[in-house]
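User: Let's play a game. I give you a shape written as tokens, and you guess the letters that built it. Ready? Here's round one.
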């Protein structure tokens, strides 16, 4: 008897403090996930992410950040207890180059969620033919600088910011992310991402994470 293939909707990762998180691709149009992560960012984290003060996320930004297609714009979300706590994405700037960006809600920073997300997204970027990653951060943002170095981006000072590019690195053996599991999930049809979104929708009935 032939059984239909099993579709996995999350990649499980073990965090530095012994906790765990689930990673999955952001489904197209998941504005609510983008909003939930933004609400968990402090004013400082928002400024570091968007490079300008951002007390609220304009509607156009929300739609753009949720406008993923699995190739030109790829984003992955991390969930803890079903609640979105981080996002990482790449957006193509040319056929072989893409801009990398990420954010983790303040309450869960320092747990390794950013590292897991960066490893997952750079794994997909390499598989999609991205040979150059680009990024811009504020000087003094040590955590982001470390994550970008992990991804293979080398930063230099430019006009008051740090800008850089580099070849996306293969994940380290010590990474919490299984690259095979990431690529298997990334290769599943869009309907599977929709299923993932549905299975992790319970967070909508809970309050957003408080900023720190």
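Assistant: Ready! My guess for every position:
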């Amino acid at each position: 008897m032939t059984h239909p293939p099993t579709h996995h909707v999350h990649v499980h990762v073990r965090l530095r403090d012994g906790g765990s998180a689930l990673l999955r691709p952001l489904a197209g149009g998941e504005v609510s996930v983008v909003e939930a992560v933004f609400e968990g960012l402090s004013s400082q984290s928002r400024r570091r992410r968007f490079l300008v003060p951002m007390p609220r996320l304009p509607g156009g930004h929300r739609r753009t950040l949720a406008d993923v297609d699995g190739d030109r714009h790829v984003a992955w979300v991390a969930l803890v207890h079903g609640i979105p706590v981080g996002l990482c994405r790449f957006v193509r700037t040319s056929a072989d180059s893409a801009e990398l960006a990420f954010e983790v809600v303040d309450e869960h920073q320092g747990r390794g969620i950013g590292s897991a997300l960066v490893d997952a997204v750079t794994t997909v970027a390499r598989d999609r033919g991205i040979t150059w990653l680009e990024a811009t951060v504020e000087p003094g943002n040590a955590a982001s600088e470390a994550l970008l170095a992990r991804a293979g981006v080398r930063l230099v000072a430019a006009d008051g910011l740090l800008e850089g590019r580099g070849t996306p690195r293969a994940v380290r053996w010590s990474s919490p992310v299984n690259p095979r599991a990431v690529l298997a999930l990334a290769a599943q049809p869009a309907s599977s991402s929709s299923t993932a979104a549905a299975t992790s929708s319970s967070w909508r009935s809970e309050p957003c994470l408080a900023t720190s």
